[in-house]
Structures are given as structure tokens and as C-alpha cells.
Design a protein that fits this description.
Helix content: 25-40%
Oligomer: single chain
Strand content: 15-25%
Distance between the termini: 60 Å
Radius of gyration: 23 Å
Order of helices and strands: HHHEEEHEHEHHHHEEE
Shape: elongated
Structural class: alpha/beta
Length: about 250
């Protein structure tokens, strides 16, 4: 009963807090947790895993990171390992095989735009469609729009103090902000910032794809953005991260 209580409490609080409550040293509690976690993982079957999400989190203050791998279909944590470099993908590959999984069956990996994660996926899961987390991509798009505005406002003073007008969604603008935005979008002003803003609005999870010949259903449930390589990146919104250009396109364009 004591061990069952520890396992239940560990789902909701740190081990040190549990130790204070049950009046036990935390090293004993860690032995209990490690025993049952190891026992449970011995029986894990990853043969049906085809879609994986990976992200890093800080394990403590400073730069101590842990990378977590999750089954995107079941939301089950599959693997956790120290670090956030490409070797984390190598270790996950080995752990997947040790639990009846097949790396060649992984069809999609969702991650942020870390060059380390990208190279690790391409090396250890070459069959996987790489999908960028939409929140990271949108953050980069917003930064690009703001950079266009900051550069242009040097010669266009009407853009000063308009930063958040371009970064908010239209429905979240105050009445005076919406009026200012409408004024600045007049075509005769020919603002680069306005063109970049419309690229931002037109960006959509289905506007990015990893391979020119792949189909858009490869990016499902608005999970993120795939990677697309190709020329013709609009000069008003040129973004480069992890060595790859992201082309902001109008929805429906090839």
C-alpha cells in the first residue's frame, strides 16, 4: 500500500515534497519509482507507434535539459533522455527497437526548429515526414513581420508605435487600432509592412510542406508546419531558421 501511495502521489508532486509528507528520505522513494517504472517499461510495446512528437524541457535551473518523446496518437510518453542534441534521437531510435518498435514505421515527427532535432530525425528516421511545431513557426513569422516594420519605419514615420497592430489577430484589435490598421493598409501607401502582414495572415499549417511532391494531408489536425524548399521567397518576409527557408504562401497555392 505504501508503494502504491508513492506511485500515485508522484503523478502530482515532486519527490522531495512526497518525502516530506511521508517522512521518508527521497532516495528511498526514488528507488521505489525507478523499480516500478523500469518494470512497466519492460512490458511496453511500441510496434504501433507511427507519429512522434519531441520537445525539450529544463530539468532544473540552468542549462540541464531533458528531451521527451511522445506518441502523438495516444499522448503517451515513450522515452525521456538527458540533453537536447541530435544524439537524443539516436537513443530514442535504440529504445524504440528495444520495445518492438520499428524506426522505419515512423511516418511523422513533430518538433521545434532545432537544427539538432532536424539532423537527428533525418539521420535516424529517414522515412519520417518532419513537421515543425506551429507555435515556433508563428513566433518566427511574427519576428519577421516586426523586423520589416522596424526597418521601414526609418523612412515611414507613420509606422512608429504600430508594432502590436501588425502582430495581433484582427479580431483582437481595439477599435482605434483597427482604424489605424485600415488606414495603413491603403494600397497607395505601398507599405512593405502591410504586404508582410498579409503574408502572415495567409500563413496556415497547410501552407508549408516538406516535399514538393507530398500531399497536404501529411500535415494533419493543424499539428504544425512541414518544411518546404524552393525559390521565390517574398522579399518582404524572408525567414531562415535551421538552414531552411520557410516560404509564406497564400493558401491553396502549389
Amino acid at each position: 500500500m505504501f508503494e502504491a501511495l508513492i506511485m500515485m502521489m508522484a503523478k502530482a508532486m515532486p519527490v522531495k515534497s512526497i518525502a516530506n509528507i511521508v517522512k521518508e528520505h527521497d532516495t528511498r522513494l526514488w528507488r521505489v519509482l525507478n523499480h516500478y517504472v523500469h518494470e512497466s517499461r519492460q512490458e511496453s510495446d511500441f510496434s504501433a507507434v507511427t507519429e512522434v512528437g519531441v520537445d525539450e524541457t529544463s530539468s532544473k535551473r540552468g542549462h540541464n535539459y531533458v528531451s521527451l518523446f511522445v506518441d502523438m496518437k495516444s499522448s503517451q510518453v515513450l522515452f525521456a533522455t538527458e540533453g537536447k542534441d541530435a544524439s537524443t534521437l539516436e537513443r530514442f531510435n535504440a529504445d524504440l527497437e528495444a520495445h518492438l518498435g520499428d524506426p522505419s514505421n515512423i511516418r511523422e515527427v513533430c518538433c521545434d526548429m532545432s537544427p539538432a532535432f532536424i539532423s537527428g530525425v533525418e539521420k535516424h528516421f529517414p522515412e519520417a515526414h518532419l513537421t515543425f511545431d506551429k507555435f515556433h513557426v508563428l513566433k518566427i513569422i511574427n519576428e519577421a513581420v516586426d523586423e520589416v516594420r522596424r526597418q521601414e519605419q526609418q523612412s515611414r514615420p507613420e509606422l512608429k508605435r504600430t508594432r502590436y497592430i501588425w502582430l495581433k489577430n484582427p479580431k483582437n484589435l481595439k477599435e482605434n487600432q483597427a482604424a489605424t490598421l485600415e488606414t495603413l493598409q491603403v494600397k497607395k501607401l505601398n507599405l512593405k509592412t502591410a504586404r508582410a502582414y498579409h503574408r502572415r495572415l495567409d500563413s496556415h499549417p497547410h501552407s508549408f510542406d516538406r516535399r514538393p511532391d507530398s500531399k497536404q494531408e501529411g500535415i494533419r489536425k493543424n499539428q504544425g508546419f512541414g518544411r518546404r524548399r524552393g525559390p521565390g521567397i517574398p522579399k518582404e518576409l524572408r525567414i531562415n531558421r535551421a538552414g531552411y527557408n520557410l516560404k509564406i504562401m497564400r493558401r491553396g497555392n502549389p
